[in-house]
Amino acid sequence: MAESEQTQVIQPKKKMGFGKKLIIILAVIVAFLGVCSLMIVHQNNQLEKKFYQVKSNKVVDNIRIVALADLHLKEFGKDNEKLVAEVKNLSPDIVAIVGDMNLESQPDNYSSVISLCKQLNEIAPVYYCLGNHEIDAMLFKNSNIYKDIKAEGIKIFNNETETVNIGGTAIDIIGLTQNPTEFDEYGKDFFEKAMSADDNFKLLLTHYPEYFLSKLNAYDIDLAITGHAHGGQVRLPFIGGLYAADQGLFPKLCDGYHEDGNSKFIVSRGLGKSGIVPRINNKPEIVIADISWY
To answer: Among 36, 43, 153, 275, which is most buried by a count of CB atoms within 10 Å?
Structure first.
């Protein structure tokens, strides 16, 4: 008896509708952006330490400077306990702050800055040079940030200088606060007097690396520490910083160690942000400058 033949009917697969495809694409995009956002948040709460070795025949023994910039009210742990702990572990001789620890848009909200300065001052003497956010808050919004920080015993500079002795080395600490565009009118006389006072090691604290694009190239500065450029805010692999406020796209001076003539200077990438664009591929940075004669 012959087996009965059976016919199999194959139904065509239904194509996925445009609406479902769109939902899947949007879900993938949202998931990708979510992962990226989490990575950015994680990165922006990690403190990176950057060490620099600076040689000078003006120093007797090794001197360590830990420098902070551009905090913009960001906190690393409660009352910045993580940041303070990192600085303490570095055993600095001097803590240098080069401005923009506050936010100009919140002129009276700087208690966390004062608290941080007081904690750091218990580790090592703090020398604080004002940045544009402090200056603008003072000039245009009647902020008392300079007076209140100074009242706590912090050495805060607004075109001021102080000589300190560390391990037998005399250091003239110069705090230059003017924007480079105002240097000739308001800062040049002060700066030249401070530079010519003696043969001590000259440590310049100024917020603006742009000074080394034009104004300070002719001077012999043993070491300057600056901030302001935020490392270019967004850092591109193999390229570097994308944009800095006073330098534009692909800024030349937004991070790292530089030499110009007989001057040496370091540009800190800073710790926080002041605008809506997040720091991307740009971890908050603590600068450590070790100065030695060899």
So the answer is: 43
